[in-house]
Design goal:
Blueprint (H helix, E strand, L loop, with lengths): L3 E9 L6 H9 L6 E2 L13 E2 L13 H4 L4 H17 L12 E6 L6 H12 L9 H5 L3 H10 L5 E3 L6 H14 L5 E8 L3 H8 L28 E9 H6 L6 E10 L9 H15 L8 E3 L6 H15 L4 E3 L2 H4 L6 H15 L1 E2 L16 E2 L5 E2 L4 E8 L3 E9 L1
Parallel strand pairs: 4-5, 4-6, 9-10, 9-14, 10-12
Antiparallel strand pairs: 1-7, 1-8, 2-3, 6-7, 8-15, 11-13, 14-15
Helix pairs in contact: 3-6, 7-13, 10-11
Length: 405
């Protein structure tokens, strides 16, 4: 079996793009959630906070010609992929154009601004702001396609526009492509731009928080009342181990196991039994037992039903001895980006030996299973392996297991 390692990784979050900066802010008890006064005009939407990456300016980020096909979500994806390739030592490398390098990534949606333009056209009959690239900026596969075009990548493109598992499926499908010998290197990840339409999706489901301050996202806590949306992106450079070593690259981690499945039942209500099954399948793929894991990076949306189901499934598989946390208290739910962001930062934590607490967590909801929730100031852990789990609308479930090199 061809082994798959991570040789580069980078991302964008509401708390910054450098792990040193993000870690410092986490240790200081900060989050990336802020009040959104610009949402006050949206009177029929209750939530007024979000985890936007306000510091990131996408306008003019790349040359004008390249930017014509990019909305904000694509710019964040390309920027993250660019820095990941730099870390891996592959930026500008001729291997990118050989057909042995591909992209597997996605987002819940493309940029919503051109969608509004199409809507205005349908209402008024006037083209308005529509142009030749409007569809390219809004299409579901805008992130992976723009990554491919910008870097001249000529291998396979796998579009994983599957809501909250877009990033984790991008990683898993990349691993499978490399293991099958279809590629030697894959750029894997996810991206999502902040838009009130995404918040409104959950608001109409009565699944958003009404706390409306920077502590609004409270996964697994007894006081949680719903999720907060966020934005960001992350990409990993995944590479066949011997290919990486032959060119002198330094592996940062190994992807040891991956599984994905579907509930095949309700479109938005999770099935804990099937979630537990995907966790077991990933462990089997990694040839590990639950006790081999050093920590779990949970999905943790801070919704009542979602956290309860996940906690029950996690307890069934891992028991109460494996430390458990989630990052959505810090960043909000970054939707299509979360699986990739959580993998990137999980690897950083595994390598650094410190796992962040669940932000805003004080007391576990008694309806959630008694996991070893990480609160307070985080936890020092000598980590060898960790699992990162994500779940999406449509009942799509993923579990990815990473190991230290």
């Amino acid at each position: 079996m061809r082994r798959v390692v991570v040789t580069g990784m980078a991302g964008i979050t509401s708390m910054g793009q450098d792990w040193s900066q993000i870690e410092e802010r986490m240790r200081a008890g900060q989050t990336g959630i802020r009040y959104m006064p610009e949402w006050e005009r949206l009177t029929d939407m209750g939530i007024k906070v979000a985890g936007g990456a306000d510091w990131f300016r996408h306008e003019g980020h790349f040359p004008r010609q390249a930017m014509r096909s990019m909305g904000r979500v694509a710019v964040m994806a390309v920027d993250s992929a660019d820095r990941a390739l730099q870390m891996a030592g592959l930026k500008g490398d001729p291997v990118l154009a050989t057909g042995r390098v591909g992209v597997a990534a996605g987002s819940s949606y493309g940029s919503t601004e051109p969608t509004v333009d199409f809507g205005n056209f349908m209402v008024t009959g006037k083209a308005g702001k529509l142009n030749a690239t409007s569809y390219i900026r809004m299409m579901a596969h805008t992130a992976p396609v723009n990554v491919s075009v910008y870097f001249g990548i000529k291998g396979r493109i796998i579009t994983t526009s599957s809501a909250c598992v877009s990033g984790s499926q991008g990683i898993g499908y990349s691993v499978e492509a490399i293991q099958a010998g279809k590629a030697d290197v894959m750029l894997a990840g996810g991206a999502e731009e902040l838009c009130p339409t995404m918040a409104m999706v959950f608001d109409r489901l009565y699944a958003t928080s009404k706390i409306n301050d920077h502590t609004a996202s409270r996964p697994f806590d007894v006081s949680r009342d719903g999720l907060v949306t966020g934005e960001g992106a992350a990409f990993l450079v995944l590479e066949e181990l011997e290919h990486a070593l032959a060119r002198g690259a330094t592996p940062l981690a190994e992807v040891r196991g991956f599984a994905t499945n579907a509930d095949g039942a309700h479109i938005s209500h999770p099935d804990g039994d099937v979630q537990a099954r995907v966790m077991r399948q990933a462990l089997d793929d990694a040839r590990l037992s639950p006790t081999d894991l050093s920590f779990i990076n949970g999905h943790g949306t801070a919704t009542v039903a979602g956290d309860t189901s996940e906690a029950t499934a996690s307890f069934e598989v891992y028991g109460d001895k494996v430390p458990f946390h989630t990052l959505k208290g810090h960043f909000g739910h970054t939707l299509g980006a979360c699986g990739a962001i959580e993998a990137w930062l999980g690897i950083e934590m595994m390598r650094g030996g410190w796992v962040s607490p669940i932000a805003n967590f004080t007391e576990a909801d008694p309806r959630c299973a008694p996991l070893d929730y990480i609160g307070g100031s985080g936890r020092d852990i000598d980590a060898e392996f960790f699992a990162s789990n994500n779940f999406a609308f449509g009942g799509i479930n993923t579990s990815v297991i990473f190991g230290r090199m």
